[in-house]
Design brief:
It is a single chain. The protein is of the alpha+beta class and 142 residues long. It has a single domain, classed as 3-Layer(aba) Sandwich (Chemotaxis protein chec), CATH 3.40.1550. Helices cover 43% and strands 25% of the residues. It is built from 5 helices and 8 strands. The relative contact order is 0.23. It comes from Nocardioides scoriae. One of its GO terms (molecular function) is DNA-binding transcription factor activity. InterPro entries: MraZ (IPR003444), MraZ_C (IPR035644), MraZ_dom (IPR020603), MraZ_N (IPR035642), MraZ_sf (IPR038619), SpoVT-AbrB_dom (IPR007159), SpoVT-AbrB_sf (IPR037914). It is found in: Cytoplasm, Nucleoid.
């Protein structure tokens, strides 16, 4: 399970240090691609393969699914972290997420997201009240 919030730097070559807590699970490989809300999505290679299988088995006649697949897979970058736990963020992915030197990396149960810091701050500020209001609806009795 991935959880927590981290603020690694992006170096001049576009590499990002994965938080140490995430490295073991991702050492065999990962996929970085577009995420929602202008973030980047990281999944282990195995999880991305499972996701791809579900996608492949979905109805390709649905125009929404085709559009989603194009956006998701077009910039997907398969990688294995280097010995220092770094991954390369392609120029296209950095541009999509607005990443320069700073990043926010968050664990979300089965995946990791990478955000531009001010975008993450805006998102969390916008979602705080909705989060407080939804807990009972999403998890009754929790």
């Amino acid at each position: 399970m991935f959880s927590g919030t981290y603020t690694p730097k992006v170096d001049e070559k576009g590499r990002l240090f994965l938080p140490a807590k995430f490295r073991e699970e991702m050492k065999e490989g990962l996929v970085i691609t577009r995420g929602q809300d202008r973030s980047l999505d990281l999944r282990t290679a195995a999880d991305f393969a499972d996701f791809t299988e579900k996608f492949k088995n979905a109805s390709q006649t649905d125009a929404r699914l085709r559009a989603y697949g194009r956006m998701l897979f077009a910039l997907a970058s398969e990688q294995v972290p280097d010995k220092q736990g770094r991954v390369s963020l392609t120029p296209e992915l950095r541009s999509y997420a607005g990443l320069e030197r700073e990043a926010v990396v968050i664990g979300i149960y089965d995946r990791v997201e990478i955000w531009e810091p001010s975008a993450w701050a805006r998102y969390t500020a916008d979602q705080e009240q909705a989060f407080a209001n939804l807990s009972e609806e999403v998890f009754p009795g929790f």
